[in-house]
Structure formats: C-alpha cells, structure tokens
Design brief:
The chain is an alpha+beta fold. The chain has a single domain, classed as Alpha-Beta Plaits (2-Layer Sandwich). It is built from two helices and three strands, in the order E-H-E-E-H.
Length: about 110
C-alpha cells in the first residue's frame, strides 16, 4: 500500500505558459441555442486575453434537469487564468440578461394527489 505514491505524478498547471479555462453556462429550456452560442462567441472575441490559437470551443454539452448547458473552453496565458475566469462569469451573467437569455435556477415541481 505504501508504494502507490511512487508510480503517480503530480502536474502543477500554474507553471505552464498557457492554460485552458473551462466554463459551463446554462440557459433555460426554450432559449435560442444559436443566440446563446453567438453571445458566448461575442464575449470570447471581445476579451483580448483569450488566445485565438488554440481556437476557443463552444458546444451544447448537456440537457440538464433545469437548464440547457453549454461548455466553453478557451486558452489564456497562465497569468490571466483567474482574471479571465472571474470576468467571463460576470460578463456572461450581465450579457445574457441584456440579450434576453435566461440563466435558470434549479427547481422542482411537486404534485400532490388526493
């Protein structure tokens, strides 16, 4: 049991020159998926810290219980990782509201039968 650590490795990604920032953004069922992707692309293109190569990725990743989820993957210089992470979350929240996309919250319907 003591030998299990000898075969593993640890990668400190903060020492890499570039890092990938992964996001998941959810919109309400019924919201336009093309509009969602276009809005996300607009925000990515507006941020000069996000690298063009490798190319950013936007895809519909999951039909969740309360939302339609999109994954966004962008590459940045390591020093920009956290500022891009926090800024993008805030920018998406504000822009979705501005363009009429709804960020849903988890909810459950309960039906009582007598």
């Amino acid at each position: 049991m003591a030998g299990w650590l000898t075969n593993s490795s640890l990668t400190n990604y903060s020492t890499e020159l570039r890092r990938r920032v992964d996001f998941t953004f959810g919109v309400a069922y019924g919201d336009n998926t093309l509009k969602t992707k276009e809005t996300l692309a607009e925000l990515i293109n507006a941020d000069e810290r996000i690298l063009k190569d490798p190319e950013p990725f936007i895809g519909l990743s999951k039909l969740g219980d309360s939302s339609v989820n999109f994954v966004v993957r962008v590459w940045v210089e390591s020093g920009d990782y956290w500022s891009v992470f926090f800024d993008m979350n805030e920018n998406v929240y504000n822009k979705f509201n501005e363009v009429g996309l709804t960020i849903p919250f988890p909810q459950m319907d309960v039906h009582l039968h007598q």
